[in-house]
Write a structure and sequence with these properties.
The protein has about 375 residues and is of the alpha/beta class. It is about 20% helix and about 20% strand. It has a single domain, classed as Metallo-beta-lactamase, Chain A, CATH 3.60.15. The strands form 2 sheets. Strands 2, 3, 4, 5, 6, 7, 8 and 14 form an 8-stranded mixed beta sheet that branches. α2 runs parallel beside α11 and α4 packs across α5. It starts with 12 loop residues before the first strand and ends in a 34-residue tail after the last strand. The C terminus is likely disordered.
């Protein structure tokens, strides 16, 4: 396995501000330590000189998602399902040597989630019409989304997901072995890209726990070229204005995209599904605010898995401490769900109190030939 124990080998820089805070014990002392560490990190990261070149988000697909998972049982509504929208996030930035780099974050190929046991069973229970025609909608294939961002797949240097729930990595990086229904090896969707993922996330595929089984595609990394997988251990900066910050809890290897833009720092993950998740005191969704008030909580978890709910809670506090106020409504911070709950009337009264809708800054450019991870 192509393990990069020292991220400097790819020009990545380890982030040390959170090392002590992450290990704070007892756990009750950890939120304060995390906020202090976040302030220290922001002091050097959130500067005018340290910004990404451009960001573009493009909708890929929406999927039905149980309401009881979305807000940890706090929300009340007649419809047992909400919809979450997956978006490709394209980030362009200068690496630490001044070269233009491109990150494709969350390039979910819709065929992958259908293989995960939870969704496979949901399709069998609800039927294909309800599953595909009512609860799901495809907006763009990943190549179409990349093209709408102004790029070709070969322009992408890095690929990353906040975690690997429902992901079949073979669709992204290719596979040396045929998958079901194919006669030959699967070609890479991003032929020049390296996958950046936490070692603890990758290792999960080696032995799925019963609490994890329903959400991982069992053979999702089988035959993937090892030389194109970079295993991280904690927080790293990729270049100017972009970092992957380890935010465990939802999964052991969850990390959050953190970018510095002209409108402040944004943080993206699936720890929550809506602005209401990080700002329950402002929520108009029935049950969410009262739940948070009763339990004295600052955030409400996306809880389809509970690998470590305390870690996930603290990770959401970390995300809030890193993010800047939103320009449209500064009561909300720039914590952008990587799968955001749709703003659809059919979900009423479970509709987002505030909807982000996307992140778009600057102009995405095609890199010069020979630039990027393939250089």
């Amino acid at each position: 396995m192509a393990v990069v124990e020292k991220p400097e080998k790819l020009g990545l820089k380890p982030v040390g501000e959170f090392d002590e805070a992450n290990g704070t014990w007892p756990r009750g002392d950890r939120p304060a330590a995390i906020r202090e560490a976040a302030a220290e990190f922001r002091a050097r990261f959130a500067t005018e000189e340290n910004r990404v070149r451009a960001v573009r988000t493009v909708d890929i697909a929406s999927a039905g998602y149980p309401l009881k998972f979305a807000f940890g049982g706090a929300a009340r509504g007649a419809n047992p399902y909400i919809n979450i929208i997956n978006r490709l996030q394209v980030v362009q930035f200068e690496d630490f040597e001044g070269r233009l780099r491109t990150l494709a974050y969350e390039p979910t190929v819709p065929e992958g989630p259908a293989e995960a046991p939870f969704y496979r069973q949901q399709i069998e229970r609800l039927g294909e019409f309800l599953s595909y025609k009512v609860l799901a909608k495809i907006y763009n294939s990943v190549p179409e989304a990349v093209a709408k961002a102004g790029l070709e797949p070969e322009d992408v240097d890095y690929v990353s997901f906040d975690h690997l729930h429902v992901q079949d990595v073979r669709f992204v990086l290719g596979s040396s072995e045929p998958i079901d229904g194919e006669t030959g090896p699967l070609p890479a969707l991003f032929p020049n890209a390296k996958l950046l993922t936490q070692r603890s996330e990758w290792d999960t595929f080696g032995s799925l726990h019963p609490m994890q089984w329903a959400w991982y595609v069992e053979d999702g990394i089988k035959g993937v070229p090892e030389e194109n997988v970079v295993l991280l251990e904690g927080d790293v900066e990729l270049g100017k204005g972009v970092a992957l910050i380890w935010t465990p809890g939802h999964t052991d290897g969850n990390h959050s995209l953190t970018i510095n833009t002209p409108e402040g720092v944004w943080v993206s993950s699936e720890n929550g599904v809506s602005a209401d998740s990080w700002h329950p005191h402002l929520s108009k969704i029935p049950g969410v605010r009262k739940f948070a008030e009763f339990f004295g909580r600052e955030v409400v978890l996306n809880s389809n898995t509970l690998e470590d709910s305390i870690d996930q809670y603290d990770s959401m506090l970390k995300e809030k401490a890193l993010a800047d106020p939103n320009r449209r409504d500064p009561r909300y911070l720039n914590v952008f769900p990587s799968s955001e709950m749709a703003d659809w009337r059919r979900q009423w009264p479970v509709v987002p109190t505030f909807w982000y809708g996307g992140i778009n800054y600057g102009t995405i450019e095609r890199p010069p030939s020979g630039n990027g991870a393939r250089a």
